[in-house]
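Many introductory courses stop at the sequence. We go one step further.
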Amino acid sequence: MNPKIIDTHIHIWELETIQYRWLEGNTTILNQTYNLDQLEETRQAAGITAGVLVQAENHFEDTNWMLLNAAQHSWIKGVVGWVPLLDPQRTSDALDRFLKNDHFKGVRHLIHDEKDPRWLLQPKVIESLKILAERGVPYDVVGVLPKHIQSALEVAEKVPGLKMVFDHLNQPPIPSKEMFGPWGELMKEAAGHPMFYQKISGQGTASGNFNSWSVDDIRPYVEFVLDHFGTDRCFLGGDWPVSLLAGDYVRTWSVYKELLNDLLTNADLEKVYSQNAVNFYNLEA
């Protein structure tokens, strides 16, 4: 029997009608439209049974586009969208609207594209994050620096009821093979906060070894988060189509499954493959 596997990190973008600032001038394969029909064959080949669409730009157009697509694809169980965190009243109004849609499950802002790694700690943003916590809406932290982890730790102190997940493990030091440096020390601290989760995703691109990354490259860092956060607070994401920079979708999932099947019992695999994601995002899957 094949296990349920939820991919909690899928992007789509429509360049003909929607602007994505981070793609302007991008010369990679990412600078084109990506839709769910392009993923369908490889999604089935990889054994993915359900998915979550995740924000790709800081505007409502992106969120509306994801919600429209989620309604048209039954295997998509949730959307992590965007709200204007710098404006608490508009955040509240946006949540009033979005939460009427059963697919809306979380919020993200592209903090790694902001010049200030402490962007989340602005008073207005904290006020908005408190609104998320009050409404039971989790937050995806897309950080790339140790300072982003530090900021998230301070958010946890200011907004203790907010569930947060570190997308892509917040870029562990895979290229340098450091064991585990500032990243590890901060993640140990984060593990002490029960509202922090880890999304095992984006590790092919994080490795810096686009052409031949493997289980051996990522094993120490995945083991680290499993050891410290436990098998109740980790789940998985494919990061398509960004992951295509480091190989095709099936290969990405083959690496994750090979590693996790070696590390975990069947009961824990069920948690990491699906149940933890259901619990974090309140999915019906």
